Amino acid sequence: MIETVFLDAGGVLVYPNWDRVADTFARHGLIVDAGALRRVEPAARFAIDNPQADKVKDADRGGRYFNNVLDSARVPRGPARDAALAEVYAYHMEHNLWEQVPDDVLPALERLREAGLTLAVASNANGVLEKCLRRLDLTRYFDVVCDSALEGVEKPDPRFFRLLLERTRARAETTLHVGDLYHVDVLGARSAGLRPLLLDRDNLYSGFDAERVTSLHEVVAIATGHRRGQSG
């Protein structure tokens, strides 16, 4: 029986505001289509998911991720791109750029709460995540929000998950962790004794040793005992 569900923030509950990114780049004379950024984002995120996750800081991973997105969208490197990125980064550090909520998030959170489950956010973030989630009216669904920048430890370190288990008074064997990166979320949660679910909306992880779902609706079904997970 599942009693507790941990959910990653970026890539699960929220995504970057690519419209804001495109507008910022336009102010620096670089025209980039927000839709193009969204289309290349999944592959750019997949590219930063590597076996050295425990040796890479999340901030460094984030820098590589953004450059992957921009390179894939053919945004030319140079002073204008650097200046636009600096402006995006400044916004992110004050407000958090991950501020777009997929359509399946609110219905899924409602159903998980109705089922009486304890919910927590388990995120490698930048210190302002809770403020961002409050702005998006998401904090009301969660018992605990854990932001790695405030804790001094980040996924995949099992100490991050153990800290969250302690805060939620949860048992590892009855807790699901839903994340979007195999080497960060799946292996990290496993190392702490949790059951990991890999949210693979774009079917990029076929063949990985992971129980995969393509939407949060599937997470609800698994958490409430109405569906067995997909593996492989």
CATH class of the largest domain: Alpha Beta
What is the terminal separation in angstroms?
22 Å
Give the helix level as a range of percent. Answer: 40-55%
The biggest sheet amounts to: 7 strands, mixed
What's the pLDDT, averaged over the residues?
95
| Annotated CATH topology of the largest domain | Rossmann fold
Q: Which structural category do the helix and sheet elements fall into?
A: alpha/beta
What does this structure look like?
With 232 residues, the protein is α/β, with parallel strands linked by helices. The chain folds into 2 domains: 4-13 and 100-231, Rossmann fold, CATH 3.40.50.1000; 16-97. It has 10 helices and 9 strands. The strands form 2 sheets. Strands 5-4-1-6-7-8-9 form a 7-stranded mixed beta sheet, with helices on both faces. A two-stranded antiparallel ribbon has the order 2-3. β4, α6 (129-135) and β5 (144-147) form a beta-alpha-beta unit. α1 crosses α4 (79-95) and α5 packs parallel to α10 (216-223). The two termini are 22 Å apart. Mean pLDDT is 95; it is low at 227-232.
List the SSEs and their pairings:
Elements lengths: L3 E4 L7 E2 L1 H10 L6 H14 L10 H15 L6 H17 L2 E3 L4 H10 L3 E6 L5 H7 L8 E4 H4 L6 H11 L6 E5 L2 H10 L3 E5 L11 E3 L2 H8 L6 E2 L1
Helix pairs in contact: 1-2, 1-4, 2-3, 5-10
